[in-house]
Every structure is written in C-alpha cells, then in structure tokens.
Amino acid sequence: MKNHFIDEVNVIIDGDKSEIVTITGAGAYNSNIVKNKAIEMIKENLPDSKLAAVILTHKEVTVEEYRQIIGSNPPWLFNID
C-alpha cells in the first residue's frame, strides 16, 4: 500500500532566488499543505522575504520505498526496524 509521499518543492525567494526542499508525509495528500510547509521551512531563516512554492516532483511510496529513498524510517515511526 502506497500511503506515504515524498515531494521535492522549489521555493522561490523574492522572485530571483530559489531553494529546493524535500517534504514527506503520510495519509491524505494535499498539495497546498505541502507547499505551505515548504514555505514555512524557508521562512524560518528569511522572515521578511516574499516566497512562492512550486512542486517539482511527487512520489507515492510504500514505507519500504520511503526507507530506500530517504535512508531511514519516516519520522512518525520513530526509527523502529
């Protein structure tokens, strides 16, 4: 069952720079939540910047595929084998 996801999100900063962040999750997928989370991550270091997010890739994965791509268990599994 593929109920985990891994997204690569490009966050555009002030219209001329960008940073790519990885957002992971499980359950119901909502692209707006993914983009908002990416913006929140960047906003911590750049609070006065104007930010916009674009999802570059979206992968639905099993927990085994997640482990292979990310290199560890999802954080909500607390790294249990």
How would you describe this protein?
The chain has 2 helices and 3 strands. The model has no long low-confidence stretch (mean pLDDT 90). Strands 2-1-3 form a 3-stranded antiparallel β-sheet. The protein has helices at 31-43, 63-70; strands at residues 4-13, 17-26, 51-61. The chain has one domain (4-77). The chain is an alpha+beta fold.
Structural class: alpha+beta
**Roughly how many Å apart are the termini?**
18 Å
For the record, the count of structural domains works out to 1
**What spatial order of strands do you see in the largest sheet?**
2-1-3
How would you characterize the largest beta sheet? 3 strands, antiparallel
Give a short synopsis of this structure.
The protein is of the alpha+beta class. Helix content is 26%, strand content 38%.
Topology overview:
Elements: E1 4-13, E2 17-26, H1 31-43, E3 51-61, H2 63-70
Salient structural properties:
elongated; 81 residues; single chain; alpha+beta
